[in-house]
Design goal:
By secondary structure, this protein is mainly alpha-helical. The protein has seven helices and no strands. Helix 2 runs parallel beside helix 6. The N terminus is likely disordered.
């Protein structure tokens, strides 16, 4: 009886995961729209990086809906493994591309001594993300551990990056608004590059490890 209940509960996890991913997509659409608009109006590199990161997360969440859908439909192990590798690879390269953009844009901002305008809209968005993202990340990690999904763990890690970015972004925007520090925005953007690269490399490493393991079977 206990085994039956445990199996039933595990079978429901992909459904829960899909629901969380759709919620993630809905929130990321808000972040993309508000973040990029606020970035254009204010000239903030950190806000633009935040908005683009949200765009990558939409792709990542969409891939995870596909991956979890295969498991939900009872797809065979080979199909699920293939989806897992594809998802991990896409998440990893998306993060790497974002890191390149952030470094280039922040360096250019420092070189040009660009002075983004303070933006209440950006501050409100960053503050909201600081609250929302940890909740989504916590649920994703729980499901990933239960079903053994490296791709979902990578997707959750990308959510951690988003939350980290929101904290740094919020600090940079507040410092710029309060003290007029022109360099705070670019420094805030550079502050999250290490985390982005680390999580991107981890996702790519997991994808390669899964490929190697498959080749040995």
């Amino acid at each position: 009886m206990i085994r039956s209940e445990s199996s039933t509960q595990r079978a429901r996890l992909p459904n829960l995961g899909i629901t969380v991913e759709w919620l993630t997509i809905a929130w990321m659409v808000v972040e993309v729209g508000v973040g990029i608009r606020a970035a254009i109006l204010s000239g903030s590199v950190a806000l633009m990086a935040f908005g683009l990161d949200s765009g990558i997360e939409i792709v990542s969440a969409g891939v995870m809906v596909w991956r979890l859908g295969i498991e939900q439909q009872g797809g065979n192990v080979e199909r699920v493994d293939h989806a897992e590798r594809r998802a991990s690879t896409l998440v990893g390269w998306g993060l790497m591309l974002l890191a390149i953009y952030v470094v280039a844009s922040a360096a250019w901002g420092l070189w040009q001594r660009s002075q983004p305008e303070p933006t209440a809209l950006g501050i409100a968005l960053a503050a909201a993300a600081v609250v929302v993202m940890p909740v989504l990340v916590g649920v994703k990690r729980h499901i990933a551990d239960r079903i053994g999904s490296a791709a979902l763990r990578g997707d959750a890690a990308e959510g951690v990056v988003c939350a980290y970015m929101a904290i740094v972004l919020l600090a940079g925007l507040v410092l710029r608004a309060a003290f007029g520090w022109w360099w705070a925005d670019s420094i805030a953007a550079l502050g999250i590059v290490y985390v982005i690269v680390r999580e991107g490399r981890e996702a790519l490493s997991e994808a390669r490890a899964e490929e190697d393991e498959r080749g040995l079977k």
